[in-house]
Design brief:
Length: 328
């Protein structure tokens, strides 16, 4: 493992440890948080003893790209023969096609709104999640969601599918946004995957320009006004981490030409070859220069800026970006 990769992984693990310590102080010590802390501590101990990134079965090095996707990985594919590896690849290819089929149309128009998203898995399947829903005739509210399941790979993608199904069913029966998050929280807590949780923003955009948002531990969305870029405020606890949570709605009004931008951490936490992070400030600057653009060109501008910044460095996390613009 290169020193740069080791430093990046250690930094991510320590940052996760700090966030978990904050959650433990605020929420006590529920089993889910304790398990996550134990995972992080075990990985940090392996770093100290020089066994991090080494397969516990065959003692060979695990690929750096695999560690960047899942910092807790302890096994490689050493025990699989060629036939088994091909079967695994076929399963992953099928999972990739199924997951792609769960995504909505990339461009959606409804009730005076235009929306567009980008979805870039770093591997065959992704733990990122995004959705756009509107009545077939385009006359009703535009409902939307973007989220990020902790971890990577197949387990995260299965929970992503779980979120997709629950969001679509709950939003269509008319539940409030906080109630949707409350129910999803309990669904994930009972999914028998205690190491996984999700951050998510869900919302409704109405023809009047009024927008309701409910943020469960996700990165703050940006609002692009005609003369400025705003960052929305604090969020609640991620779903699937702690039981008996309540969530709150944030309300705002967008004028014609204003745009709401949501994203996952694969965008702002992307790092170049010098291990410099792209960051929320750089994204805000790009959005400020591009705020007059419709959703698709706006997404193009953001990803072009990211590509130039990376200078050929490989992304280490799934990336999703969504732009919702009031057009009338």
């Amino acid at each position: 493992m290169s020193p740069e990769t080791a430093a990046s992984l250690r930094s991510k693990l320590l940052d996760r440890r700090r966030r978990l310590e904050t959650a433990v102080r605020e929420e006590g010590a529920p089993d889910d948080l304790v398990f996550l802390v134990q995972q992080v501590d075990a990985a940090l101990r392996r770093m100290e003893t020089g066994t991090y990134g080494v397969c516990t079965v065959c003692s060979t090095s695990i690929e750096e790209a695999d560690l960047l996707r899942n910092p807790f990985m302890q096994y490689c594919l050493c025990q699989l023969d060629e036939h088994q590896q091909q079967a695994l690849q076929n399963d992953l290819d099928l999972a990739q096609r199924i997951q792609a089929g769960l995504l909505p149309d990339q461009d959606v128009s409804a009730s005076g709104w235009q929306a567009h998203y980008r979805y870039h898995p770093v591997g065959p399947v992704s733990g990122d999640y995004c959705d756009l829903l509107s009545p077939d005739d385009g006359s009703g509210d535009l409902s939307f969601a973007i989220g990020d399941v902790s971890g990577k790979g197949v387990a995260a993608s299965l929970l992503m599918a779980h979120l997709s199904a629950s969001f679509r069913s709950l939003i269509q029966v008319g539940l409030s946004l906080p109630e949707i998050h409350t129910r999803q929280n309990m669904l994930l807590l009972t999914s028998h995957l205690p190491a996984h949780y999700a951050t998510q923003v869900i919302g409704r955009a109405r023809s009047t320009g009024d927008v309701e948002l409910c943020n469960a531990g996700h990165w703050p969305p940006f609002v692009l006004r005609k003369d400025r870029v705003e960052t929305l405020g604090a969020s609640g606890m991620p779903i699937g981490m702690v039981g008996d949570r309540t969530y709150e709605t944030t309300s705002l009004h967008l004028e014609p030409g204003d745009t709401l931008v949501l994203y996952t951490d694969g965008l702002i936490e992307a790092r170049d070859r010098s291990d410099v992070e792209f960051g929320a400030a750089r994204l805000s600057e790009v959005l400020g220069k591009s705020r007059d653009l419709p959703p698709r060109p706006l997404a193009d501008a953001c990803l072009a800026s990211l590509t130039a910044f990376l200078r050929g460095a490989r992304p280490s996390d799934d990336l999703s970006l969504m732009a919702i613009r009031r057009s009338a």
